[in-house]
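Appendix B. Raw example, untouched.
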Amino acid sequence: MSGLNALFSAAFLILVVASVAVTGSMAVLALIDFLFRKKQPGAPGEESPLDQVSEHADEGNQDERNDAALARLHAEQMRKFRTSQGAL
């Protein structure tokens, strides 16, 4: 009985070490990816949707301008999503 108990204990410890190794490697690889990821430059002369809306917004409340900018950004993202039917 003692041999069976030792076998289960050893198997459990091996699984714990393996799970720690996998989790640790995932975290390290994510950090390496984050550190070496290159920022995608925008096209020359292109403005972000938030800049475009804030320039054309009426002289009103800041919240209304922010809401308009978010609505326009959301609409643009939804148009991009609808054109990519491969996600379905």
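End of appendix B.
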